[in-house]
Amino acid sequence: MKKIAIKILKGFGILLLLIVILAGGVYYKSVNYTMYDLQANKELLAEPSNAEGYAALAEELVGQMTLKEKIDQMYGEKMYEVPKLGIGFLIKNRFPHVYAGGNERLHIPPWVLSDGPRGARVMDHGINSVTTFPVGMARGASWDVDLEERINEVIAIEMRANKVNYAATPCINLLRHPAWGRAQETYGEDPWLLGEFGVAAVKGIEKHNVMACPKHFALNSLDNSRFFVDVNLDERTLREVYLPHFKKTIQQGKPASIMSSYNKVLGEYAANNKYLLNDILREDWGFEGFVTSDWFNGTYDGIASVKAGLDVEMPYQQVYKYDILKEGIENGEISEADIDKIVTRTLRTRLKYAFSDDQETYGHEEIEKESHVTLARVAAEKSMVLIKNNEVLPLASETGQKVLVLGRLANLENTGDIASSNSTSLNITTPYEGIKAFNQALQNKVELYDGPDTDLAATKAKEADQVILVVGYTFEDEGEYIIYSAADMEKSAEAGKLIGEKGIGGDRESLKLLPEDEALIQAVSEVNKNIVVVYVGGSAINMNAWEPKVASILFAWYNGMEGGTALANVLYGKVNPSGKLPFSIARNDADYPYFNPYTLKIDYGYYHGYTLFEKKNIEVAYPFGYGLSYTNYDYDNLIIKEKTLTEEGKLVASIDITNTGDMGGEEIVQLYVGFKNSSIDRPVKLLRGFDKIRLEQGETKTVEFEVTIQDLAWYDPEVKQWKVEEMEYELYVGPSSETGRLMTDSFHVNE
Ligand code: BGC
Fold first, then answer.
1. If you average pLDDT over residues 85-104, what whole number do you get?
2. Number of neighbours of residue 59 by Cβ within 10 angstroms
3. Distance (Å, whole) CA 168 – CA 113
4. Contact, 747 vs 647, CB < 8 A?
5. Where are the beta strands (DSSP E) in 217-256?
6. DSSP one-letter string for 481-529
């Protein structure tokens, strides 16, 4: 008996040992995964010299492929590589290189995706830190498209240095409601602003032979039900509100790729949606690149996806399986020619990047180098929006000041969501660190209190000369909704409310700050009238409970690795704040369009953001395009060059702006077109131009705008065409969308 027991134990021991060795092996292999060359070997594959050459090469290669090899081009990694993803992501908190489309026999190198709306997400072996920029919404608030292009160049450079050649960015989904968890990744509520930023981002990325991939196509503006929600809207709303920025980004930016979204659009999942992926994207807009799916839960039906025009399923085979597609071919649902078309267009696009022979220019020394970090600081400075200022800011930068920094977030490394838009920097400056470093030169002591005791905070605030409160959110409060079971998400979506445990991040269920932040502001504002509230977050908040009690409010956003330094520079006036809101802030939460994070269906109406508030005459707390400065700007002399134009014409208008205050600064000049005389239902006005200019004290500059008349068009669903109305239009130019502050004139469009 004893002997048998010993034998069994031994057997178990050996089994356990084998399991441990195997698990160790898988772990080791997953962490130290193999890296593949992304360059084509020109000795084995002849380099084409032009677009026709790439098309011919792609066709030739496809001609040599077996059906299985073709299907192998249509998804990311093999299933057996998936532990690399799981272990990297869950245990090491690192996102690995996920390869797609390699074919050794035909010498076709693979391509590799990295996320990266605020910095490269995928890091090379041995690299643990990259330049981390402010989030997209912050940069949207900078209204600086040149800056956006440079930021994306840097992101692309660092991606190349990390051995990646495909960037899953920019995110250009429209901010329909401020509670959207991924608001921070995009650029704002307005299609025009989004389009301009999308183009800038794509251009920056593509300059460095990285394939850009705007996402998520389309209508992904709600996260907690993203795998299930069906977004309904009419054709006009789709074309005029939710797609123009995609169209512009595709047509002017010319990205190699685009990512379909998780959600359904008009009853059909985006990855299966022929109307979106083929009819609109390819046929109407002329997109020539390839479409990839969103990850894990982004595909549903292989046959429908082939028919719709989804080219690559990510990150591994779920529906683009050999058996499924072969059967589809055999029973005539699809043909092998459909598969050939998909593989050819993917190859003809991506091989261009494989032939770029600039690899040696992107070494590890590029990563987080000084000029990149400086750009991260400048971006943070140019993004901050001064919302309110009762003469407290800029703070006195003089010796002898008692400075107090308060709040849970005051000394937290908090650069935003930690899901797919994550970017890791080991060199983050927190708000407190930035303020402390600034005061060091002045020999001022800076006290930090980030504990929960509001009475203690108030006692300290009584005695301080400068009180800065850092409030807002972290990845726990908002971001991509990470839930480990899609079934749980479905249950909540079906019930219309949260069932079971909430995942991480996701949509906000309240637009207010967390109760502890509100309590801190209340307690401190009782004893000190000069407090500065710094808000860290990705979208609009409801400030009603405390806004009147505080002297100054600065929206600092998730402001990247240099956020703390930038914050101090703005608070103390070394840099004049120049950001403006890329969204409107409503007075009441009920004024925003309907939103429920848990839902199977949602209707998107024609109006949202400023178009909604203006149409319904609803007073807002802070309008779209709003932001203060430490100086003043005067607007004068609005001139329209030619007041009668034809449909093919261009409106040319100019305006003079003078800095009348006593500090140099940057002003964002906005141009809107109004539709008062329209015979159809149209917004009061729409943004159709903006420019950010630098003006020293007393300086005047003339800003010139051009608006093509086609940009005034509306989409007539009856005839499925864009139409320009012949009528008188209003032109508004000024510092924000607020009507009272805009200069106005009018012009005519005739035949
Ligand atoms: C996100 C995408 C991202 C992808 C890969 C998805 O969950 O929605 O934006 O590119 O993951 O990380």
1. 90
2. 15
3. 7
4. no
5. 230-232
6. EE-S-HHHHHHHHHHTS--S---EEES-S-SBPPHHHHHHHHHHHHH-T
Atom of ligand 1 nearest to the CA of 213: 10
**pLDDT exceeds 80 at position 566:** yes
With beta carbons less than 8 A apart as the criterion, state whether 311 and 72 touch.
no
Q: What ranges in 179-241 are assigned the alpha helix state H?
A: 191-206, 235-237
- Give the separation between CA 418 and CA 82, rounded to whole angstroms: 20
Strand 504-506 and strand 700-708: the pairing is: unpaired
Contacts of 301 (CB under 8 A, 6+ apart): 269, 272, 319
Length, in residues, of the chain: 751
> How is residue 181 written in tokens?
């968890």
Pick from 539, 540, 534, 537: which is nearest to 566 by CA? 534
**How many beta carbons lie within 10 A of that of residue 504, not counting itself?**
17
Neighbours of 236 (CB within 10 A): 16
pLDDT digits (tens, 9 = 90+) for 300-354: 999 999 999 999 999 999 999 999 999 999 999 999 999 999 999 999 999 999 9
Q: How many helices (H) and strands (E) are present in the chain, helices listed first?
A: 20, 32
Residue 459, H or E segment = helix 454-463
Q: How far is the CA of 420 from the centre of ligand 1 (A)?
A: 5
Report residue 18's pLDDT band, with 50, 70 and 90 as the boundaries.
Answer: confident
Q: How far apart are CA 433 and CA 413, in angstroms?
A: 10
> What average pLDDT does range 490-514 have in this prediction?
96
- Ligand 1 geometric centre to CA of 115 (Å): 7
Q: Which residue from 89, 182, 480, 507 has its CB within 8 A of the most atoms of ligand 1, so it is best to mutate?
A: 480
The model's confidence at residue 1, banded by pLDDT at 50, 70 and 90, is low
Q: Decide whether any atom of ligand 1 lies within 6 Å of the 292 Cβ.
A: no
Name which of 688, 679, 227 is nearest 481 in CA terms: 227
**CA-based torsion, 451, 454, 459, 465: positive or negative:** positive
Instruction: Check if 368 has its Cβ closer than 6 Å to any atom of ligand 1.
Output: no
User: Between the CA of residue 517 and those of 174, 293, 451, 543, what are the distances in Å?
Assistant: 28, 39, 11, 11
Token output for 89: 């992501």
Q: Where are the beta strands (DSSP E) in 110-256?
A: 111-115, 166-168, 211-212, 230-232
Question: Is 115 touching ligand 1 by the criterion CB < 6 Å?
Answer: yes
